[in-house]
């Protein structure tokens, strides 16, 4: 029965012809509530509308009834265009000027343009829809003439109207918004807070201690602990504000960085900046404001009093300490710049400075009685920052390096760390259950892992969790043949039933479907150039691979093509773990290996 | 960026595409008389995925190209830019009109088609 339906359906589209424009698009206008009218466009089978071609206009700008606002839901991605595959929902809020009374007929000019995915694009359509409204309930305009003169711009806004969410690929900004809404925001805040705490334990924060102490002492004798605490909090908060501003700026200006971060030389440059910053953490050189300025501000702080004074000092201190914590701070700022999100930037840097400030509050409250004791451990904390910065540097440059080369870099870093924490130092003296032994053991583990990464990288291993794969005895000597044998192959099918069975069977896995035919040279080119590429093969391994053979070009081929809106081969479709089609990922036509890899990487 | 690459790729493929479109409708009719062929008019426009599929996939196919050159003079009309001769109707793009050398209509095909289907259309039209 179902098959029969498909036959009918495909015949309808393929043989009988296409829908006439008035069958393909059926616009309707209705009253939604007392001051809102709605427009829907019912779409025929396989018909879609372009989002950017959909417009509404007030035909009579002088009738006293105006469009206060126009909103519509968002379309979905279709071969790189934003389209509506189901009726768009347009909502027009009306307003009136004072002299309009009773029931009035108004006209809306609607223009739209669309195509049938069976292979025909319609001409743009313009039509006027009439509707009668009761003007008694409309709100009156406050600025009567402003909107009469010009037609309101159509703004796209999210509406309560249900939009199939799974079909919509989040744009870059949405993704960042997701980070903020989702749990990873908390992860970022917590990490930055943690970094802040760690930073407070570096010698960097030391110049702040005399400042905060003197600020609090300057308040005069007999200052209660409670007051001292609040003053310290004010000091820390104003310091936090300075950093938050820096974070917001980095987020704002960094928006453009995102694009720049696609180019290899920028990636290389920033990667090097991180290496240099790391070097300052290893005391190869020092970033600091001249002592003269530092001590001057310290002196000044003695004279300031009151909450405002404390706040100003806090703000200024952020600038003094700034250069010293510059390296980690710059790292944080560049990271935020990459996200291009000012809100995230502000929040993250605020968390960082609160983390940094908490020990200061402790110092301030106890008026200097409690202070972390300086020692070698502070330099250790600094070195940890250094290693982290180098890690970031490798992470950045690994985007443009081969996997095995970046693995070697990680290996090298691990070896350096291991040796520096004394992996190969003898444990002097009697040492049972002592700290040095644990450290040495840890060092040896890191050393071994680092060396295997190095060795694995040299032999072409790509997975840091299995660096020694190329040496495993049950595999062929050459890494290339090993990987070739492991790759998945395409399962060939010809019918809807087979494809649906595969999709059900592979719930929980991602599926890639290639529509192919012998008579299609572009399909063969895809096979011989793209799918045979070693890198592409590895990338495709995370998918269940299905090839739909349309060579026969019979009813079954037509049915499956029209079911998935495929106009003809070659076309590649992707399905996520839930068996839902990722429409935005559709590929039509030939794609070179590199472009195809990039495309695979962008599918989320 | 990817759009630029796409545009370049399209330009490159245009350069190597061998389907020889007549420069104009009149030129196509004149050439059809001279070579004793029929005329195939393709009505298309920009932003039309099915038109792009015809150009990028179907007309790239050697078999299709040979079949067209054997019996037809192809000519391309952009419905938004070019003059549309009388009688060449359409409800959308692409629409194919087949004419004899005198300009008399012998058939019409609406919409895009894959390679074998379009070969079928060509086969039917050349014998009319």
CATH top level assignment of chain B: Alpha Beta
Rg of chain B, rounded, reads 14 Å
Total beta strands of chain A: 18
* Count of all domains of chain A: 4
Low-confidence stretches of chain A: 1-16, 143-183, 475-484
CATH H-level superfamily title of chain B: Glutaredoxin
Tally of individual helices of chain B:
5
Oligomer: heterodimer
**N-to-C terminal Cα separation of chain A, in Å?**
36 Å
The CATH architecture of chain B can be given as: 3-Layer(aba) Sandwich
Number of DSSP helices of chain A? 22
CATH topology of chain B: Glutaredoxin
Mean pLDDT of chain A, as a whole number? 75
Query: Biggest sheet of chain B, open or closed, and with what strands and sense?
Result: 4 strands, mixed
Series of H and E elements of chain B: HHEHHEEEEH
Quote the distance from N terminus to C terminus of chain B.
47 Å
Portion in helices of chain A = 40-55%
Helix content of chain B: 40-55%
Structural class of chain A: alpha+beta
Q: What gyration radius of chain A follows from the Cα positions, in whole Å?
A: 33 Å
Number of strands of chain B: 5
Keywords:
heterodimer; A: alpha+beta; Immunoglobulin-like; five-stranded antiparallel β-sheet; 18 strands; flat; disordered N terminus; B: 128 residues; four-stranded mixed β-sheet; 5 helices; 5 strands
């Amino acid at each position: 029965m179902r098959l029969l339906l498909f036959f009918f359906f495909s015949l309808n589209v393929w043989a009988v012809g296409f829908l006439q424009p008035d069958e393909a698009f059926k616009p309707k206008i209705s009253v939604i509530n007392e001051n809102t009218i709605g427009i829907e466009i019912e779409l025929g089978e396989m018909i879609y509308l372009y989002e950017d071609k959909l417009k509404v206009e007030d035909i009579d700008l002088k009738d006293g009834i105006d469009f206060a606002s126009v909103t519509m839901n968002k379309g979905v991605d279709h071969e790189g265009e934003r389209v509506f595959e189901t009726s768009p929902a347009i909502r027009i809020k009306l307003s009136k000027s004072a002299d309009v009374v009773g029931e009035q007929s108004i006209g809306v000019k609607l223009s739209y343009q669309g195509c049938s995915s069976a292979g025909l694009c319609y001409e743009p359509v313009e039509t006027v829809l009439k509707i009668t409204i009761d003007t008694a309930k409309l709100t009156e305009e406050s600025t009567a003439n402003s909107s009469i003169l010009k037609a309101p711009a159509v703004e796209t806004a999210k509406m309560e109207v249900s939009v199939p969410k799974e079909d919509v690929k989040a744009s870059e900004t949405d993704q960042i918004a997701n980070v903020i809404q989702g749990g990873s925001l908390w992860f970022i805040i917590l990490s930055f807070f943690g970094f802040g705490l760690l930073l407070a334990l570096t010698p960097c924060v030391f110049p702040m201690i005399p400042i905060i102490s003197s600020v609090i002492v300057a308040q005069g004798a007999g200052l209660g602990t409670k007051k001292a605490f609040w003053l310290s909090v004010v000091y820390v908060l104003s310091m936090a504000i300075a950093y938050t501003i820096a974070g917001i700026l980095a987020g704002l200006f960094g928006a453009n960085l995102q694009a720049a971060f696609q180019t290899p030389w920028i990636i290389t440059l920033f990667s090097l900046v991180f290496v240099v910053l790391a070097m300052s953490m290893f005391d190869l050189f020092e970033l600091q404001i001249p002592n003269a300025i530092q001590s001057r501000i310290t002196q000044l702080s003695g004279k300031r009093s009151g909450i405002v004074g404390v706040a100003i000092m806090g703000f200024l201190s952020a600038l003094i300490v700034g250069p010293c914590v510059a390296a980690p701070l710059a790292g944080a700022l560049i990271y935020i710049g990459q996200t291009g999100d000012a809100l995230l930037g502000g929040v993250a840097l605020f968390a960082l400075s609160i983390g940094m400030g908490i020990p200061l509050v402790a110092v301030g409250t106890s008026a200097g009685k409690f202070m972390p004791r300086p020692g070698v451990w502070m330099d250790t904390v600094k070195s940890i920052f250094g290693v982290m910065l180098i890690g970031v540097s490798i992470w950045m440059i690994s985007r443009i390096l081969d996997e095995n080369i970046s693995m070697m870099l990680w290996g090298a870093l691990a070896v350096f760390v291991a040796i520096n924490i004394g992996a190969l130092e003898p444990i002097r003296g009697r040492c049972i259950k002592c700290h040095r032994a644990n450290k040495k053991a840890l060092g040896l583990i890191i050393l071994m892992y680092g060396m295997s990464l190095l060795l694995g990288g040299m032999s072409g291993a790509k997975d840091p969790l299995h660096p020694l794969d190329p040496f495993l005895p049950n595999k062929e000597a050459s890494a290339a043949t090993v990987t070739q044998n492991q790759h998945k192959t395409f399962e060939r099918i010809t019918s809807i039933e087979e494809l649906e069975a595969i999709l059900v069977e592979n719930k929980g896995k991602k599926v890639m479907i290639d529509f192919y035919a012998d008579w299609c040279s572009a399909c063969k080119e895809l096979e011989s150039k793209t799918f045979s590429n070693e890198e592409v093969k590895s990338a495709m391994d995370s998918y269940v691979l299905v090839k739909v053979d349309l060579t026969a070009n019979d009813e079954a081929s037509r049915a499956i093509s029209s079911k998935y809106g495929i106009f003809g081969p070659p076309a590649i479709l992707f399905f996520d773990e839930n068996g839902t089609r990722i429409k935005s990922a559709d590929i039509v036509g030939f794609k070179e290996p590199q472009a195809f890899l990039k495309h695979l990487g962008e599918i989320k | 960026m990817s759009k630029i690459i796409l545009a370049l790729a399209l330009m490159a493929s245009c350069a190597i595409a061998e389907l020889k479109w007549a420069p104009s409708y009149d030129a196509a009719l004149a050439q059809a008389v001279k070579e004793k062929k029929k005329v195939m008019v393709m009505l298309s426009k920009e932003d039309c995925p099915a038109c792009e599929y015809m150009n990028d996939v179907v007309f790239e196919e050697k078999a299709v190209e040979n079949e067209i050159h054997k019996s037809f003079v192809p000519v391309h009309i952009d419905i938004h830019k070019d003059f549309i001769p009388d009688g060449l109707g359409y409800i959308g793009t692409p629409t194919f009109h087949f004419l004899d050398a005198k300009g008399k209509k012998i058939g019409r095909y609406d919409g895009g088609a894959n390679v074998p289907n379009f070969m079928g259309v060509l086969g039917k039209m050349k014998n009319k």
